[in-house]
Amino acid sequence: MVEAVDPPPRSVRLEQTKLLANALDRASTACFTVGVATPLAGYLYRIASVYDRVETAELVLLLTAWLTACGIFHLLARRVLRGVAE
Fold first, then answer.
1. d(CA 38, CA 23)
2. Are residues 63 and 39 in contact, defined by beta-carbon separation less than 8 angstroms?
3. Do the Cβ atoms of 29 and 73 come closer than 8 Å?
4. Shortest CA distance to 35 belongs to which of 60, 59, 56, 63?
5. 33 and 41 in contact (C-beta within 8 Å)?
6. Is 68:32 a contact under the CB 8 Å cutoff?
7. C-alpha distances out from residue 60 to 2, 24, 43, 54, 83, Å
């Protein structure tokens, strides 16, 4: 016989929601660090020779893509947190 399982208490669901929102926001920070700050610093300081082969337009396109990913993750985190207020 299968016993009925009670849903987790509201406090547990609240903490799980906050944990998910934090994870999404950390992902946005990682996208910024890996995709924007690091390549931009390498390009500005000419740290790696690979940046000599990258066109400026290509770099701008890639930075824009990473910034977009960063923004999407951050907005998702905000949307998840909106569920906490309800």
1. 21
2. yes
3. no
4. 63
5. no
6. no
7. 58, 24, 11, 10, 35
Per-residue pLDDT tens over the stretch 14-64: 888 999 999 999 999 999 999 989 888 887 887 766 656 777 788 889 889
User: Measured in Å, how far apart are the chain's first and last C-alpha atoms?
Assistant: 36
8-state DSSP, 46: T
Single pTM value for the model: 0.76
CB neighbours of 20 closer than 8 A, spacing ≥ 6? 80
Specify burial of residue 9 (Cβ count, 10 A radius: 0-12, 13-18, 19+): exposed
CA distance 25 to 56: 29
- What residue segments make up the domains of the chain, in order of their start? 11-85
